[in-house]
């Protein structure tokens, strides 16, 4: 079933309201998230709308301390970005996921994502993401007491 213009408008508005309330009333934000999730189950939307919605849902779930759910939405966003987005957008999506894995102390997955970020950032010459990934990998290896590997990334930034 294809979404009508009204459904597109509705999900965009709900998405904006969910983000608006994220910082001032997370419970209200989650109410809008529930409405968004119901719309997602019943309709199809353009990739552009879905990318924005998934990113925002990831952010809201992160702020409400539901890390697994946040990662789930960031991964959905990443899959769509891989199809229609830029390399920079891929870096941003992967960085969100890596950061959540890092914050939830899942160093194995964080390391995997940060390494991917460093490779892509090197390929497209994105200095910001190169430095962010090197710093994160340095900290990961330091926490794991892998000092030689930590030193390699420390010297890169």
Q: Which regions have little confidence, pLDDT < 50, spanning 5+ residues?
A: none
Q: What is the tally of helical segments?
A: 8
Query: What does the overall shape look like?
Result: elongated
Number of E strands: 0
Gyration radius from CA atoms, angstroms? 17 Å
Structural class: mainly alpha
Strand count, sense and closure of the main sheet? none
As a percent range, the share of helical residues equals: over 70%
Report the mean per-residue pLDDT as an integer.
92
Q: What's the end-to-end separation, in Å? A: 49 Å
User: What is the chain-wise order of helices and strands?
Assistant: HHHHHHHH
Helix-strand layout with pairing:
Elements: H1 5-22, H2 26-42, H3 47-63, H4 67-84, H5 87-103, H6 107-124, H7 127-143, H8 147-156
Helix pairs in contact: 1-2, 1-3, 2-3, 3-4, 4-5, 5-6, 6-7, 7-8
Describe the structure in your own words.
With 157 residues, this protein is mainly α. 84% of the residues lie in helices and 0% in strands. It has eight helices and no strands. The longest helix has 18 residues, at 5-22. It is elongated, with a radius of gyration of 17 Å. The termini are far apart.
Write a brief structural summary:
The protein has 8 helices and no strands. With 157 residues, it is mainly α.
Observed structural traits:
single chain, 157 residues, mainly alpha, 8 helices, 0% strand
